[in-house]
Amino acid sequence: MLKTFPEFFRFGAATAAFQIEGAAREDGKGASIWDVFCATAGRTAGGDTGDVACDHYHRWREDIELLRRLNLRDYRLSISWPRVLPHGRGRINERGLGFYDRLIDGLCDAGIEPLVTVYHWDLPDDLQRELGGWACDDLPAIFADYAGVLFDRLGDRVRMWLTMNEPWVVVDAGYIHGVHPPGIRDRRMGYVAAHNLLRGHAYAVARYRGSRHGNGRISFALNTSYSFAASDSPADQAAAQRAMLGFGGWFGDPAVFGAYPAALRNRLGGLLPSFSEGDARLLRGSMDYIALNYYTSDVVRHVPGGGAMELEKLPQAGVATTAMGWPIRPDGLRELLGWLATRYAGLPIYITENGAAFEDRPDVRGFVQDEARIAYLREHLAAVADALAAGVDVRGYYVWSLLDNLEWAEGFAKRFGIVRCDHKTQKRTIKASGRWYGRLAATRRLEANNSLPAVSKGVSS
C-alpha cells in the first residue's frame, strides 16, 4: 500500500492553551474554572495542575522551532480567555493579549499558518461564580464580546478560526457526569448549557463575519464517533443512526440547519430547549467547514425502553484499545467522513484532532520508540486517504498532540504527544512518531509498514 496525499492537503499539529501554557498567575492572567478544578483535592490524577504544564508561555519559540523541524506548516492553538480578559469581560489584559500577538507573529514568520480556537474549555472562573457559566442565557453575548477582541487584534494574520472546542464534552463531562468543571451532575442543566454553547458559537460567528477581518473561515470543533450497527436488522440500523444524530447531530445539525435533529426533539421533548427565530437564523450556515475531532467509534444495538434513545453501546471484543481505553477504529473514521459529507453536503472537512495515548517508555536520552502510535496514525491517515479517493472533500489533518500535555482530569499520566515533554525538566524530545509524521508531512507519501523511515533533513530528536 502506497497512498499519496494531494498538494492542497494540510498536515499540522494541535494543542490547547490550558494544557500547555502554564504561567497560571503571570502577567495579569485571571483564574479559569480549570485552575480552580485542578486545585481541588481529588479532582485530577496525581493532583496534577496546569500551573506550569509544558511552560509553553515561556518556551513558545522553542515549540515553533519544533513545528518547523517536523515540517509542519499548520498549527492549531487556543487562546486562554482569562489571560486576555481576567474577569471574562471588561478590561483587556494587554500583557496577556500581547503574548498571543507575539506567538501569531512567530508562527507567521516561520511560515506556519495558525488555526485559532477561541474557547478550549478554560472559562474565566468569575463568569462561573457570578453567572453560573454556560447555564446562563447571557453568556453567549459575553462570549461574542470576547471573541470580538481576538478578531480585531489577531484577525489580520489568522485566516482560520474555531469558536469553541468540543461543546459535547463541555456538557457531557462538565454538566452530566461532573468529571470536568464545573463538576455538575444535572442532565436538564446540561441541555441548557449545550443550547447556550451553540448560541455562543452563532453569536461569535456573526461577530466575525461582521468584523473588518471577517473574510477568513470559521467553524467549531465537532467531536463525534461513528456508530456501527450491531446487526443488519432494521431496528439496529435505525438505532445506529439515532446514535449518530444524538452525538454529532446534536451540535452539527443546528450549525448547518438551524435546528436540532428531529430524532432528538421527538425523544427528548421538553428537555431540549428551543431556539428563537433570530438564534436559528444566526446558527443556520454558521460553519464554513467541518472541523472534526475523532478518536474512536462504537457498536450500537436497539434496546426497547433503553433510555430516551432506546439503544446501548456494546463491548468491542478483540478490538485493541489505547491507554484511554478507547477502541482503535480507523474504519470508523472512514465511515464517519462519508456520513458527514453526506449529511452536511458542500462543507470541506478538516480533521482538527486525531491521535492516541499509549504507555510510552523513554530510553535514557528521553527518546520514545512508539511504534503503537505510529501504527495508529498510519491506519487513521490511510482511512483519510481512502475517503479522499472516494470523493470526500478532506483538506487537512492535525495530530493530537504536538506535546505530551496536561490531559485534563487525567493529569500528566496520559501522553498523546508526538514530542515527549519531561514535565520535571521541560525537555522536549521528538518521538519516533514525530519523526514518522514529519517525514509524511514532507513527502506526502503514506507507506504500508509501520517502521520508522530514514529521518528527513531537519527532523531529529
Please provide a brief summary of the model:
With 461 residues, this protein is an alpha/beta fold. It is 40% helix and 15% strand.
What does this structure look like?
With 461 residues, the protein is of the alpha/beta class. It has one domain (3-446): TIM Barrel. 40% of the residues lie in helices and 15% in strands. The strands form four sheets. It has an eight-stranded parallel beta barrel with strand order 2-3-4-5-6-8-11-12, surrounded by six helices. It has a three-stranded mixed beta sheet with strand order 7-9-10, with helices on one face. The chain has a two-stranded antiparallel ribbon with strand order 1-15. Helix 7 runs parallel beside helix 9, helix 13 packs parallel to helix 14 (371-389) and helix 14 (371-389) packs parallel to helix 15 (432-443). The two termini are 28 Å apart. Mean pLDDT is 96; it is low at 450-461.
Main traits of this protein?
single chain, 461 residues, alpha/beta, TIM Barrel, 8-stranded parallel β-barrel, 3-stranded mixed sheet, 15 helices, 40% helix, globular, disordered C terminus
Total of domains = 1
Helix/strand/pairing class, anyone? alpha/beta
Fraction of residues in β-strands: 5-15%
Helix proportion: 25-40%
Question: What do we call the CATH homologous superfamily?
Answer: Glycosidases
Low-confidence stretches: 450-461
Please report the total strand number as a whole number.
Answer: 15
State mean pLDDT (0 to 100 scale).
96
Order of helices and strands: EEHHHEHHEHHEHHEEHHHEEEHEHEEEHE
Rg, nearest Å: 21 Å
